[in-house]
What we know:
Distance between the termini: 60 Å
Shape: elongated
Amino acid sequence: xxxxxxxxxxxxxxxxxxxxxxxxxxxxxxxxxxxxxxxxxxxxxxxxxxxxxxxxxxxxxxxxxxxxxxxxxxxxxxxxxxxxxxxxxxxxxxxxxxxxxxxxxxxxxxxxxxxxxxxxxxxxxxxxxxxxxxxxxxxxxxxxxxxxxxxxxxxxxxxxxxxxxxxxxxxxxxxxxxxxxxxxxxxxxxxxxxxxxxxxxxxxxxxxxxxxxxxxxxxxxxxxxxxxxxxxxxxxxxxxxxxxxxxxxxxxxxxxxxxxxxxxxxxxxxxxxxxxxxxxxxxxxxxxxxxxxxxxxxxxxxxxxxxxxxxxxxxxxxxxxxxxxxxxxxxxxxxxxxxxxxxxxxxxxxx
Length: 351
């Protein structure tokens, strides 16, 4: 292989990095950024962080006609990637890590029962994202753009439909080609802003710098732009273009998965409660606390948020004469202060 430079590697990422990552809702580049970020957060060595960042570059740099593994990418991409790194002067440990990462994954799948299932079952809590968006006001339009015929994306359909999200079907032009989600989303958003003048906020759930022009246009049209992305794989330029930007892992109700070497998988997401009313109250209080940065919240504001989270909510249907009675019925979730003219609520100490 001819001698290359480090700049050559980043040119490959710039030109090919937005390819789909074998059907997952992230690009190839985002997948490798996430891997590097997780390695760095775990205190790994510089070589291991670089190995994580470059581990799948063989998928992007494979020559035309390279054999593929059905929908799983390029066959022996680990060897192609390692050879490319050596040609660019990143030999030694970094290239060795890239060359062995497939074998390492196979070993873990064999040696740790449940490891493969945890890889495939890692999902996003769509409800937590929608709840967060609801904290800014009534949701007028909610859309999700994807190829819903893909098994990976199809897993989210139940969550999205249950929250009245409009599913926009996109058909990829070619295998591993960048889909048109970003273009379609941007066009629809700008059209909606001109069509619906009362829209005040735009929430963009993405991490791609391609959405920077959209965020800037929304702000120029007088809308407040909220961004939500995954830590370690969100472009800094996108975060800077938004009025506020939050990492998915920091959203109220989202909990990071615990380290688990036994093969059993702990659920990711909000704590489930037997009483749906208690769950709704807790979600609303956590969202208000995060938004207002205050311990005590106005009861009226909490009730309004609950109604936005679940329009069917009625304290009378749940057997309570008033909203304050409803709150008092859940002392393990919330505490009340009725000493003043305004009724205040906060999360219980053990809530």
